[in-house]
């Protein structure tokens, strides 16, 4: 492939990718978490602050990034996903810049490397959702790009940018803190073992300064109320229900369960298996350093590889552990190693064009299998279909006014209709720890428990009550002896106006509610 043809294909991929992502974003079934992420962005756009004004069990960056976009597109999850598409496309651009800088004289590998990421089914599936993946994966690609620029130029400003990007990633999700720590570990190792790689004391210091600057918003919220910050980011996750609670913690150790999920994620997902195998070949290649051009990639490959290992280990400790913790986040971390694997195989077989074409075709097939056959990470139940969401939302809107309050056990219904939340129900996960907190803590941390739910029902504060969609927190954590009382009072004060499948829209029965 000539450099001119490669550049044309390169640009064509960068144009087609966001168009394809946008199309996927409008048909991919909803993920339950999107309801509370989008709601948090809406609340921030209204001037409210995470932790202080509403419960938000993550680091605070995402709502602030998505809030301005919410003001542009309004209460629509489908539209909010377009910002995720933009962030994902920007990540591919950064990866493309890295490829052009390092493999510009080998255009086939630029195109192949770009497609290795663009076709990744875990990025195609998770990066289009209103969750932390698009933002955090963009940050990881930005770190790798900036660090590599620093290695090439030996200018501290690029390490400052890398540290800033790492700070933003942690600002989006605390689970990435060990990964960010691995960046400093890798830089220190490179400084010690490879003094000619371009890492100086000032480079490491600049990375640290950038990292701290990236965490300034979190520091501000921590200083404002350390206990509330810890509860939202740490304590909540320790208190929340785990499936292992039912199985028996002694019989099914958390670590064993986590390792089982890790095995499923890494070795039962075809595309991930290929990515790992290529990454292993790439690591062996860079250790041998046969080609001087590959030797120059040692530092950035070390940063990426160490980060992938550390992040994998860190993801074993949350309870429960989900496959999505590994599949999408590991994609950018393994990309440099996997590409070096392709380069080494091409060198061994002596036919780069044929080898890269074969890898790309294999990636296309496996991506289709993961997305359309195995449907990795996607729940195709009717309740998570956009058409179903639109029907529920239309019925809520038809039976309420814009300023009315709606009680829903999935935040997405209230978000989509633009109605007011019942205080403490801005996040549907809040109920998951309500039984483990005293009433004063629930009020302080903006968590609705059985007391506040009963009060809302008895006073008929919500114009609409929506049952279904996401009842997991109710079914697994509320005291079962209290549920009959809640259902009885709900039946006394509300009646079903519309239902489809498991979702029911209830309206007030005639008469005033109690004065409490």
Count every helix, treating DSSP H or I runs of 4 or more residues as helices: 25
Helix content: 55-70%
Quick check: average pLDDT?
A: 91
SSE class:
mainly alpha
Low-confidence stretches: none
* Strand count: 5
Number of domains: 2
Shape: elongated
Note the run of SSEs as H and E.
Answer: HHHHHHHHHHHHHHHHHHHHEHEHHEHHEE
Biggest pleated-sheet summary = 5 strands, mixed
Q: Give the distance, in angstroms, between the N- and C-terminal Cα atoms.
A: 76 Å
Amount of beta strand? under 5%
- The Rg value, from CA coordinates, equals 25 Å
| Strand arrangement, major sheet | 2-1-3-5-4
Please give a structural write-up.
The protein is mostly helical. It folds into 2 domains: 3-30 and 76-227 and 255-373, no CATH class; 382-508, no CATH class. It has 25 helices and 5 strands. The protein has helices at 3-25, 34-45, 61-73, 77-103, 107-118, 121-126, 133-153, 156-172, 177-193, 201-214, 216-224, 226-239, 243-247, 254-267, 270-288, 292-295, 298-314, 324-349, 352-373, 386-398, 411-417, 439-444, 450-458, 472-477, 483-493; strands spanning 405-408, 420-421, 464-467, 494-500, 503-508. Strands 2-1-3-5-4 form a 5-stranded mixed sheet. The model has no long low-confidence stretch (mean pLDDT 91).
